[in-house]
């Protein structure tokens, strides 16, 4: 370490006792096995979250919430602000890649059974962050106040209104009234930049702390000590993570330049909905399923049943460490694999059908 | 006994009448004529009586019965005086039947009743139970004569009076359509058509020629012969007919020219009902060719600014002195084509060069030359910046502001077209300069957007290169670390 850096380190160490942490990091190892590649998606998700925070703050410098200002301010950002087009495009593309990366991370953890004891809390906080992430996507989509966003929010909040008992009050709470208006925009802006980031940061803190404390989970099939390989977390894994982050940054730059995020037409609440209105891709499989469910099934309303099924599935998915005790005991649980495989196939198939419809 | 005497008297009268009534025996007629009533007097000259139609033809009953009670017995089909639509139905009983009409030796059409029912006159009358007009309203009841007979109320020289019996009645027309004018007759009498008609010319247009006879529809009805887009064709029926118009010695190519004109294309092809038809310039009931002095006023009803600018221009005085029709001199009349820049300037095809040359009216020649140069440069600028905006847009750049400004350039070009009519170089230059100035701003914005597009790509290449080198270096460093 160069003298100047050493002096800075010593100065900080004398005050906050860094040595313990550095020693801990130096002893931390990451398992190496054929499935190690999935570990990187947690880091990629974290990197995308950091980009979202940075670009989001930059957008906040110019974004103005309000029915009459939102669209114009985004237009201003894209046409007048230096590199505004880049920041906005990166923010929009990152949002989508973030959800994709988080989904991959979630499924890899699920299939590796990494949620098993003692990592139940890590899994649950991860799932809660994933739900918050969907909330980020849903609330952020409305903020440019364009035609597609307006009607997608209308459809989305309509679906929320179908939920028995709490549906109607929930819809009114989300919209700030009976219809999607400027009040909805203000609320969604508040959720997007204050409520959701606050909650997300808390869960992210717990999640990262637990990952550091408990280390990376090893797959169930590695039982023999001789099979165990590892690499130092610092600097090997960190530098590998950093390499991937740089490649993701490259991908984002290419997407932002070649496929700048379109602003579309300003929302007109009095206009009729454009044909073929669809939600964002991460809600598409649910939207498409609801379209296939008949209006009435036995004595139940079709849409209510669909929402209830997705709700139950999401809840069971979140509490998988509770009902999959076999994995915690180190035994293979094929049912979990089949259910996971079904979920992946279902999401992919219905997303494609929804996309093509 | 009294009735018997009357019948004998009637029989004697009939015997004295010349053989105008062709029917063999009609006790109804005999009796009524003996009584000296007006209907039977009129019926003597009625075309129906001459063709053997008896009173019973319309009123029913037994024409052979000796006694009045028998003749007017309802069992014998007597209906008395028909009321309301029953009147027209009684006429239609024969006039809608080709067989019956043929049996009377008639060749007139049999669709009058059908047409009448679809006409504006078939709307419910104030009583609400019958059509406004029945057959007898125009043709009379008992003294009906052929249409070609000069005594017919629908004969070309009489029809105007017949129509205006109702259409000039303010109280009556107000009760049906308060917005409908009632001065058609007055205007008609001042028109060429009306004046010739008054002199006994049966060929000139009267009400039925333009509006139809039995199938008269509201002028707002698309099927009406006088509906805006149908009107030129209606006028052309006579005015494009060489044989028909021969005695009047006026051109017959107006419709042909009009159909190719900017106005004709707008109305007949694009169905723009705001575009002028024949009546917009010539008037309708008071149709007359506009005079030299009034042409600019007529055109000015739509082209307001052009007319105003022309009136205050130096050309106004010159045209007046030379008795030149104002708009028509440069734009023509029926054949008016869309004005282009070609009309302006000193080239052979430019209208200015007809009066201005390098030797004659030199000042005007110079002004026309300059104005043409200015408007050409504005048009060229507009095309250039439009291409730049398109290019920037195709490259996916945000260019909505520049695109919006393009409207201002177009507006300036249109304004300059109007400003031509002031024939004032200074005013014209102001408008053109305004357009060129905005074009400059658009060009700047578009070029900047296009430059930005390439800058972004260059920036991407450089940043991607740096990031890739960095990523590769890191990867190689990690590999080296792991080999140790």
Coarse structural class of chain B: mainly alpha
- DSSP summary, beta strand count of chain A: 4
The CATH architecture of the largest domain in chain A is: Up-down Bundle
Shape of chain A: globular
User: How much strand content do the residues of chain B show?
Assistant: under 5%
Estimated radius of gyration of chain A: 23 Å
What distance lies between the first and last C-alpha atoms of chain B, to the nearest angstrom?
152 Å
What's the β-strand tally of chain B? 0
Helix content of chain B: 55-70%
- Integer count of domains of chain A: 2
The main pleated sheet of chain B reads as: none
CATH first level of the largest domain in chain A: Mainly Alpha
The quaternary structure here is heterodimer
What is the element layout, followed by pairings?
The complex is a heterodimer of chains A (357) and B (484).
Chain A: H1 3-16, H2 18-27, E1 29-32, H3 40-60, H4 70-79, H5 84-111, H6 120-142, H7 147-162, H8 167-175, H9 182-214, E2 229-232, H10 233-258, H11 281-292, E3 296-297, E4 300-301, H12 302-318, H13 320-323, H14 325-328, H15 334-356
Chain B: H1 2-16, H2 27-35, H3 38-43, H4 47-50, H5 56-59, H6 68-71, H7 85-95, H8 98-103, H9 112-118, H10 135-139, H11 159-167, H12 170-176, H13 184-190, H14 192-198, H15 207-211, H16 231-239, H17 242-245, H18 254-260, H19 262-269, H20 278-282, H21 295-300, H22 304-311, H23 314-322, H24 326-331, H25 362-394, H26 400-419, H27 425-483
């Amino acid at each position: 370490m160069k003298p100047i850096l050493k002096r800075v380190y010593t100065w900080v160490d004398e005050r906050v006792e860094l040595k313990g942490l550095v020693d801990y990091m130096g002893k931390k190892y990451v398992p190496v096995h054929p499935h190690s590649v999935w570990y990187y998606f947690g880091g990629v998700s974290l990197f995308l979250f950091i980009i979202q925070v940075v670009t989001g703050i930059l957008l906040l410098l110019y974004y103005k919430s309000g029915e009459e200002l939102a669209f114009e301010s985004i237009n201003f950002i894209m046409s007048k602000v230096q590199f505004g087009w880049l920041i906005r495009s990166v923010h929009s593309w990152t949002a989508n890649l973030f959800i994709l990366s988080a989904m991959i991370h979630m499924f890899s953890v699920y299939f590796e059974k990494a949620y098993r004891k003692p990592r139940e809390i890590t899994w649950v906080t991860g799932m809660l962050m994933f739900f918050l992430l969907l909330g980020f996507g849903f609330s952020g989509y409305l903020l440019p106040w364009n035609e597609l966003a307006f009607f997608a929010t209308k459809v989305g909040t309509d679906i929320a209104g179908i939920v028995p008992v709490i549906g109607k009050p929930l819809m009114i709470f989300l919209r700030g009234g009976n219809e999607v208006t400027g009040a909805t925009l203000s609320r969604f802006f508040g959720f997007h930049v204050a409520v959701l980031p606050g909650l997300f940061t808390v869960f992210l803190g717990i999640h990262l702390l637990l990952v550091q404390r408990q280390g990376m989970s090893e797959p169930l099939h590695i039982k023999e000590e001789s099979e165990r390989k590892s690499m130092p977390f610092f600097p090997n894994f960190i530098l590998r993570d950093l390499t991937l982050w740089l490649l993701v940054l490259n991908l984002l730059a290419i997407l932002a330049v070649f496929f700048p995020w379109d602003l579309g037409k300003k929302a007109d609440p009095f206009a009729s909905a454009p044909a073929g209105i669809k939600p964002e891709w991460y809600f598409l499989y649910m939207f498409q399923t609801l379209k296939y469910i008949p209006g009435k099934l036995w004595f139940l309303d079709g849409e209510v049943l669909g929402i209830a099924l997705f709700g139950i599935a999401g809840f069971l998915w979140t509490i998988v460490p509770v009902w999959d005790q076999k994995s915690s005991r180190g035994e293979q649980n094929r049912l979990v694999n089949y259910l996971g495989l079904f979920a992946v196939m279902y999401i992919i198939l219905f997303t494609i059908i929804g996309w093509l419809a | 006994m009294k009735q018997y005497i009357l019948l004998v008297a009637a029989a004697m009268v009939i015997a004295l009448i010349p053989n105008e009534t062709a029917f063999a025996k009609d006790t109804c007629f005999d009796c009524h004529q003996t009584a000296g009533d007006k209907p039977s007097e009129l019926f003597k000259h009625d075309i129906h009586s001459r063709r053997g139609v008896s009173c019973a033809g319309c009123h029913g009953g037994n024409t052979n019965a000796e006694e009045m009670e028998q003749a007017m017995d309802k069992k014998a089909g007597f209906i008395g005086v028909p009321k309301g639509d029953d009147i027209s139905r009684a006429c239609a009983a024969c006039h809608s039947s080709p067989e019956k009409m043929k049996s009377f030796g008639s060749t007139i059409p049999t669709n009058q009743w059908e047409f009448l029912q679809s006409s504006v006159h078939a709307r419910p009358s104030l009583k609400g139970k019958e059509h406004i007009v029945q057959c007898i309203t125009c043709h009379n009841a008992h003294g009906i004569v052929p249409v070609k007979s000069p005594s017919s109320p629908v004969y070309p020289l009489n029809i105007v009076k017949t129509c205006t019996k109702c259409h000039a009645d303010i109280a009556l027309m107000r009760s049906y359509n308060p917005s409908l004018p009632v001065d058609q007759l007055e205007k008609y009498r001042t028109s060429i058509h009306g004046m010739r008609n008054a002199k006994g010319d049966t060929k000139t247009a009267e009400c039925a020629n333009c509006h139809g006879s039995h199938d008269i529809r509201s002028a707002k009805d698309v099927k009406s012969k006088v509906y805006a887009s149908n009107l030129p064709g209606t006028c052309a029926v006579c005015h494009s007919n060489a044989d028909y118009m021969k005695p009047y010695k006026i051109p017959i190519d107006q419709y042909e020219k009009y159909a190719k004109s900017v106005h004709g294309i707008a109305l007949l092809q694009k169905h723009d009902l705001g575009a002028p038809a024949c009546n917009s310039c010539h008037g309708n009931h008071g149709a007359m060719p506009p005079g030299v002095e009034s042409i600019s006023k007529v055109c000015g009803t739509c082209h307001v600014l052009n007319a105003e600018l022309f009136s205050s221009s130096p050309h106004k005085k010159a045209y007046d002195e030379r008795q030149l029709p104002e708009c028509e001199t440069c734009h023509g009349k029926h054949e008016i084509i869309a004005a282009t820049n070609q009309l302006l300037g000193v080239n052979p095809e430019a209208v200015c060069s007809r009066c201005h040359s390098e030797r004659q009216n030199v000042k005007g020649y110079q002004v026309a030359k300059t104005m043409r140069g200015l408007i050409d440069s504005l048009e060229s600028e507009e095309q250039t910046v439009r291409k730049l905006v398109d290019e920037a847009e195709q490259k996916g750049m945000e260019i909505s502001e520049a695109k919006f400004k393009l409207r201002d350039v177009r507006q300036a070009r249109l304004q300059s077209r109007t400003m031509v009519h002031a024939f004032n170089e200074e005013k014209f230059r102001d408008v053109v300069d305004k357009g060129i100035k905005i074009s400059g701003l658009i060009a700047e914005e578009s070029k900047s957007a296009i430059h930005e597009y390439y800058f972004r790509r260059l920036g991407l290449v450089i940043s991607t290169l740096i990031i890739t080198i960095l990523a590769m270096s890191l990867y190689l460093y990690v590999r080296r670390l792991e080999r140790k």
